[in-house]
């Protein structure tokens, strides 16, 4: 299967990977032929990319880093936790949520430990009614993968996971019309949004079953090395390790996710955003470790090489995530696989998600 931009789809193209909503319900099944109406529906759901069937790439597989069962349970637990705080009517509810969150984080740690490939959240396509819950889960998976790469001990990983999964809980205090506004926020609205970091800290710092360092994750995930972040504008040495990790995971997921007001970036583009801020916004050690954790060029992505050849990413190489194996098919009969981890003189220069041929 191969990745294609939704806006480049044509009627008759065959869907290569099932599309789900955030509750795990099938919206469109693998093997369905796209019609004009279905393509319009995908656009309505703000899905930027899909996988299609392709004669050159039928054997290419993608794997989501956690099971569907764990993903759905995590999304539900995140929703329930946020709702329990929002209602503020039952202290026990949030205490129970704290215990559930620990269980979810441990499940995620177990599944990521058993997932021996680099992380690619482009590998399954989901639509979601409320971005905040899926974003919280994605950020947690990225943060845990980064923590694993940094060889954090298990108890620190659990604390990091709790901080990551609840880092945006302060957004329950933001009015819906501001939080879900499809257009660019004005200055006043942005100031309202910025309050979510401090609000999250206040919610979590005295919460049962939640370590204080998790509250500081909510507090610091928008702080930046040069002091340009918020809410306190603290600088490099004042920012906790977890704050530096979450800054990277949060921004990467934000720019590579489908949003109403812009298309999702591809992973290599999201990584470029992080590298453009290395030393000023983001910690270099965190960004370079993160680069080793993710699929810079996910399986199924069409790429162009510096010698003019074009191919599709077939498989990944751990810790050489920008040097995958490519299936060269343009002007090649028959198609053949080329391992860029061995062909070091060949460089990927561009990605193409527009061509159906």
Which features characterize this protein?
alpha+beta; Molybdopterin biosynthesis moea protein, domain 2; Hypothetical protein af1432; three-stranded mixed beta sheet; 11% strand; globular; HD_GYP_dom
**Can you identify the CATH class of the largest domain?**
Mainly Alpha
Head-to-tail CA distance between termini = 13 Å
- Looking at the structure, the CATH topology of the largest domain is Hypothetical protein af1432
* Biggest beta sheet summary: 5 strands, antiparallel
Task: List the SSEs and their pairings.
Elements: E1 2-5, E2 19-21, E3 26-28, H1 36-44, E4 49-52, H2 68-87, H3 91-114, E5 125-127, H4 131-149, H5 154-165, H6 176-179, H7 187-194, H8 196-204, H9 212-220, H10 241-255, H11 267-276, H12 284-293, E6 302-305, E7 310-315, E8 325-328, E9 336-339, E10 348-352
Parallel strand pairs: 2-5
Antiparallel strand pairs: 1-4, 2-3, 6-7, 6-10, 7-8, 8-9
Helix pairs in contact: 2-3, 2-4, 3-4, 3-5, 4-5, 4-10, 4-12, 5-9, 8-9, 9-10, 10-11
Short description:
By secondary structure, this protein is an alpha+beta fold.
Characterise this structure.
It contains 12 helices and 10 strands. The protein is of the alpha+beta class. β2 (19-21) and β3 (26-28) form a beta hairpin. Residues 132-255 form the HD domain. InterPro entries: HD/PDEase_dom (IPR003607), HD_domain (IPR006674), HD_GYP_dom (IPR037522), HDIG_dom (IPR006675).
